[in-house]
Amino acid sequence: MKLFYQLMLGFLLIIFSSITIIGYSSTSFYTEQAYNQSYNRLEGYAESLEQIVLSHKNNDGELDVGFLDKLQIVMQGEDTTLRIFNKSNHLVYPHSPMQWKLPKEYFNKLKKGKVIRIKNDHQNAQLTFSDHEAYTSVLVPWFEKGKMIGVIWIGSRVQNVEDVIVHERHNLLTALIITAVIAIMLSFGISYFISQRIRKLSRATKKVAQGNYDIQISHHELDELDELARNFNFMVRSLKRTAEEITAQEKRRDQFMADAAHEMRTPLTTINGLLEGLKYRAIPQESVPQSIDLMQSETKRLIRLVNENLDYERIRSNKVALVKTEFNAYPVLHNLLTQMSQKAKAKNDKLKLIAPKKLPTYGDKDRVTQILVNLVQNALQFTQDGQITITGKRIEHATQISIKDTGIGMSKEQSKFIFERFYKADPSRVKLGSGESGLGLAIVMSLIKQHGGNIEVESELGEGSTFTVTLYDKNYENKKES
């Protein structure tokens, strides 16, 4: 069943349930009210008649029947009927050949001063005074000087009360019908409005499923559906970013595969050519040692490429156990200059170290060395005829090491992705065959995260880059400088 019909059905159930309850309650109230008004009117008559009748007794002290006849004529104008019983429970007015008496249980209650209300005397065989019409009546005791001297039964036709009730029911029914019509119209409008908003969400969802991530739904922050629309918009924006990132990752992966295939193809081709030369004795004997050295060098390149991938996967999945201690980072930085001096000389770069002789650092010494080697190699890779400055210093609860180069630099867009796997800031400037796989900075980021530290990069295109590593002291990991 469609949502529109479900909403309409729900509204209709509520409307008709409410109308039934209201109708029943109102009818019961009107009925009770009508009878109570009749009882109060009759009791008022009884109290007034008591004063009049008691003032017109005969010489024997009994009720004056002649006067009661006259009184009955007056009361007929009020559409009421009288029956009067004396203190001995005998009907004294009107005259009747039948010896009418009130039931003993009722008479005993009346002697105690209680008023008895009778809704319909045809429903009570003991108190039926007319075979033709039903009466609503009351039995009221009359007292004089504390003693009961008689009982009056005064009644009005039930039809009079029922006419009032029927009239009220008619008015109520008319009101409920009008209310139901208006409620149904409002329910239709509300159901249509809600279902249309949900249809709009449904159509938008289909478009997203078809790959359209530019769809957005307008909302006004009024209710849960607006909140759902806002969350939907947020989800679509997130999906769009994710799709763009996946596309970028795919491009970088494809580029990496191309680079890796090229890097592998080059040493493999060299090794294969040399092996064929050795096999067919095409290489002079004096060149054989040089050929073997070349094959060994190319084999090491292949091993390094494979190891970098394996190392990254181990680090990324937290399978590398860090042995963190406090050590002096200055010797590590000094040794780094010596280790990289040949590579720097090959690119006509200068290496400069600015750091105190004592630089306490907390971390895994070998992995910290790996971080710094990768960062300096990255700086050398993109710097020609320039300078790489390594700076070490202490800050509050941490050691900070910066590697600044004067190389090609990066744009802000490139800076967003440099720590991702396979990414190369400028593939066109990377010399193929150098062994650079685009994993160095990804390894750096993973190791720094495991240390509980952080790394920041500042770069300007054509001006160079600065990588700043912060390694926090013991028990201060993951806490940034305030």
- Give me the CATH fold name of the largest domain: Beta-Lactamase
Shape: rod-shaped
Order of helices and strands: HHEEHEEEHHHEHEEHEEHHEE
CATH architecture of the largest domain: 2-Layer Sandwich
Keywords: Kinase, Membrane, Phosphoprotein, Transferase, Transmembrane, Transmembrane helix, Two-component regulatory system
EC number: 2.7.13.3
Pfam families: HAMP, HATPase_c, HisKA
Subcellular location: Membrane
Please, could you describe this protein's structure?
- The protein is an alpha+beta fold.
- It folds into 3 domains: 3-164, PAS domain (Beta-Lactamase, 2-Layer Sandwich), CATH 3.30.450.20; 224-312, Helix Hairpins, CATH 1.10.287; 320-472, 2-Layer Sandwich (Heat Shock Protein 90).
- It has 10 helices and 12 strands.
- The protein has helices at residues 3-54, 65-76, 104-111, 158-209, 224-279, 288-316, 329-346, 365-381, 412-415, 440-451; strands spanning 80-86, 91-93, 116-118, 135-144, 147-157, 325-328, 350-354, 360-363, 387-395, 398-405, 454-460, 464-472.
- The strands form 3 sheets. It has a 5-stranded antiparallel sheet, with helices on both faces. Strands 7-9-10-12-11 form a 5-stranded mixed sheet, covered by helices on one side.
- The longest helix has 56 residues, at 224-279.
- The chain is rod-shaped, with a radius of gyration of 53 Å.
- It is an enzyme of class 2 (transferase).
- Its EC number is 2.7.13.3.
- Residues 192-244 form the HAMP domain.
- It holds the Pfam family HAMP.
- GO terms for molecular function: histidine phosphotransfer kinase activity; phosphorelay sensor kinase activity.
